[in-house]
Design a protein that fits this description.
Elements (H helix, E strand, L loop, with lengths): L2 E8 L1 H5 L3 H10 L3 E8 L3 H7 L9 H8 L4 E9 L1 H9 L12 H5 L8 E3 L3 H11 L13 H4 L2
Antiparallel strand pairs: 1-3, 1-4, 2-3
Bound molecules: inosine-5'-diphosphate and magnesium ion.
The site of inosine-5'-diphosphate has 9 residues, from loops.
């Protein structure tokens, strides 16, 4: 197990539908630690950088329009295997294929309204965390429960 940081976004649909608390609670319940969190409006420039890998794809314009349409909650989670654990709890990209018990599987029905973003791999996670958070916004702290979460 490696300690990792990953970027999570509760997307505009999650915030608008009042599901942010439930979504964050599921991630928090794993034991992963919140080390950064803020409500923010994503600019066109930030969206283009964040979703650069998808530029040119048929859904790109819709994706950027959606992610900039209303506030998101950006979260940096830290802990053992934070990237893959977060992806597992999110579920598959298309809510139609997401298992019950995952965030997308339980709360979504449409690929373009899938509620949550989570970094896909280590390189993306490092890039995305620094894109959304300054060093000063990422806090280092201990929780009294840590020995109960990691052996
Ligand atoms: P991910 O969010 O599970 O990592 P990606 O393939 O990185 O999935 O796609 C980024 C986001 O773009 C998805 O979460 C989804 O919102 C949107 N997206 C991906 N493919 C499609 C599509 O075919 N139609 C509509 N939206 C899509
Ligand atoms: Mg992705």
């Amino acid at each position: 197990m490696t300690t990792e940081q990953t970027l999570v976004l509760v997307k505009p649909d999650g915030v608008q539908r009042g599901l942010a608390g439930k979504i964050i609670s599921r991630l928090e319940s794993t034991g992963l630690k919140i080390v950064g969190m803020k409500l923010m409006q994503i600019s066109d420039e930030l969206a283009a950088t964040h979703y650069g890998e998808h530029k040119g794809k048929p859904f790109y314009e819709g994706l950027v329009g959606f992610i900039t349409s209303s506030p998101v909650i950006a979260i940096c989670l830290e802990g053992p295997d934070a990237i893959s654990t977060t992806r597992k709890i999110m579920g598959a990209t298309n809510p139609a294929d997401s298992a019950p018990g995952t965030i997308r599987g339980d709360y979504g029905v449409d690929m373009g309204r899938n509620l949550i973003h989570g970094s896909a791999n280590e390189d993306d996670a490092v890039r995305e965390v620094s894109l959304f958070f300054s060093d000063a916004e990422l806090l280092s702290y201990k929780r009294a429960t840590e020995p109960w979460i990691v052996e």
